Amino acid sequence: MPTDAVGRSMPRVEGHDKATGAAVYTADVEVPGMVHAALVQSTIARGRVTAESVRREASSAAAAPGVLHVLTPLNCPPLQPLPDELTGPMPFERRTPLADLEIHHAGQHMALVVADTPQNAIAAAERMRLDYETAPAHLEMAEVPAADRHRPDHWIRLVEEKLQDRRGGESVSATCELVSLRGRYRTPEHAHYPIELSATIAEWAGDHLTVHDTTRWIAGERRVLACHLGIPEDRIRVLSPLVGGAFGSKNFLWMHVVLCAVAARAVGRPVKLVLSRDEMFTSTGHRPRTEQDLALVADARGALLSSEHHTLTETSPLAHFCEPAGLPTRYLYRSPRLVTSHTVAPVNAPTPCFMRGPGEAPGLFALESAVDELAHRLGMDPLAFRVANDADIDQAAGRPWSGKHLRECYRRGAEQFGWSRRPPTPRALRRGELMVGWGMATATYPGRRMSAGCEIRTTADGAVRFASATHEIGNGVRTAMCQVAADATGLPMAAVAFDTGDSLFPDAPYSGASQTTASVGSAVFSAGVEWKQRLLNWVAGLDGGPAVLDIRAGTVLRDGRPVATVAEVLHDGGRQLADLLSFTVTADAGEPATTTQSFGAHFCEVEVDEAIGRATVTRWSATLDCGRVVNPQLARSQVMGGVIFGIGMALYEQVPHDAGLRVGEYLVPTHADIPDFDIAFVEVPDRVLDPIGVRGIGEIGSSGVAAVIANAIFHATGKRLRQLPITVEMLLEEPS
User: Fold this and answer.
1) pLDDT tens track for 454-463
2) Scanning 110, 138, 384, 729, which has the fewest C-beta atoms within 10 Å of its C-beta?
3) Which of 712, 705, 130 is nearest to 429 (CA)?
4) Which positions, given as ranges, span the membrane (predicted)?
């Protein structure tokens, strides 16, 4: 019988360990002789710390119980800056940590205290009271002078994409009746807020460094560490056993990791650093604020004629990152005329970075809210307007789609949700004293793939282990890769395993941009196919007779009939065959002639209690076109998680600020905020992107979600809200 593992719902292979507490995360790791570190961070947004106070406070901290070392700008050994090719496209900082006494943002690392226990390290760090010479800070984008802003030309996710783009004429010719819309949409700063705090353990053995870290990019972290420390990459090993949530905060090497390595070398012992929840807000990135201006023009029949999307966003003084909110506007709807622009204002805040759905999450809030409002002005059903303006090709690149089934998503999603029963007039639905609204929006996210490697090791007893320097971040990648491996080899799931989290394994890209299944899965698939062919060649060579050989469910078939189990063949072949079946492959990702993009349709119902200003999402339906689905159970969980992520973005989440410091509460959705879900997939394989036919699912679930909720609230209340999060105060205001 065929294995047919791909396409079946299966529990996570590491699920038992996670449920029983046996799973080991970075902060759980214990190394003999390990000591502990704590950070000292700046309390001002811009200025300079005085050298005298650094000496004084470092001396005081060094005298505290259990303290072994205090690392400051005055005694930190010189670190090497990163080359332009790393600081340009990625949110790596140009300034090395503790490089000088200058302060660029609140929460900047000012010292690292190493002590025998975590408690002693924290107590000594809290004793340090540095003196500052303050300087004027830019805390809001509006405060940044035009001369200090910049307009980057391109943004690199996995391929280069235009941030400044234009097609069509300077304006729309008024040869017919036109309907237009202009609106400004604002999104706040968002924190990643994963359950697992970032943690690092650095250990030196001579001139070789081992780092245990909560990272989602082992290969990149090793490269950046080698650059900063000025040592060859092959002297660094990075281990990341399991990652307990990240959403972008663990895609990159942050400066506390470098300081931990420097401190470990200084004290000659392994050093462990676990960030506090407050330090996660200042030390591991965030989604920056955006201010987006949309201008849409359509004719009276609802044909979109012009689209303009201008984004103002922010970065830190130390990095080049840009939130590319206008990217989906370039291709999502057919528009003869288009203008997109992005302007970045450096503010005195920590460095932002990718966060789940970078560009698409804030950008689709603006675009899909504006599209909904324009459809309402035209007197058109919002779904009908989107169907009418569906883009048949990728207008931005002038290329066809590798596969697009968005209209099928619209049709199925509308049927699932019951959209045809939606009254067009706002405030027409009630449930007792509650106003009820129905909203929808389009979801989209690129289908991407990068080159990746996979190692396969076979033992004479029949065990087959695949390995790649990728990560299990809670998305079920180990399970999905085992399913791919089982099908490619013809073995049952129980006979294969997939190992992650070690830089000694073949290189893999970072676990982000919804690319891991396509990228690493292609390598696993190639390794499995090669393994199967090598084994069959061995069997064919035993008797040399003509035969059609295959492997199904761990059994070798000759002309469709079982002749031996794989375990028996491996036992007979011994070490020689096991060595033949142990090798490494690399699956290169070329540049396809088509555009690979995932699409989908989100529909939701909200209840609004206008007496107290509360909005509740009660029902959610989503239909997505993401290629082949490896594990439906895991895929549905991914989409549900993405939607919950978007609910937080729409109704709760924003980082509060007070004079540049992050203070107060950060609200996130809880179990009480989760609606009833109806998740479906179109499931047409996209083998242009990869041999498995998959496209990523991790981020499309959150793309467009905030707009769906805002559109549903408009339908419930008649209030068109263009700023996130949608607060109690907004819902209590009278409709404009």
Assistant:
1) 999 998 888 8
2) 729
3) 712
4) none
Q: What is the DSSP string of 669-715?
A: --GGG--EEEEEE-----TTT-TT-B---TTTTTTTHHHHHHHHHHH
Q: Does domain 14-22+450-587 have CATH number 3.30.1490.270?
A: no
Q: What pLDDT, on the 0 to 100 scale, is given for residue 661?
A: 65
User: Domain spans of the chain?
Assistant: 14-22+450-587, 393-447+593-732
What pLDDT digit, counting tens, does each position of 677-696 carry?
A: 999 999 999 999 999 999 98
Query: Residues 57, 699, 729, 733: which is the catalytic one?
Result: 699
Q: Determine the 3-state secondary structure of 188 from DSSP.
A: coil
The label of the residue with tokens 């950070």 reads 39
Comparing CA positions, the residue from 585, 630, 631 lying closest to residue 468 is 585
pLDDT band, residue 169 (cuts 50/70/90): confident
Neighbours of 243 (CB within 10 A): 24
Pull the structure tokens for residue 197. Answer: 């705090």
Active site residue 699: yes
What is the overall mean pLDDT for the chain? 94
Asked if the peptide bond before residue 446 counts as cis, ω within 30 degrees of 0, the response is no
Same-fold call for 14-22+450-587 versus 393-447+593-732: yes
Token pair in block for residue 28:
């759980």
Which uninterrupted H or E stretch holds 86?
helix 84-87
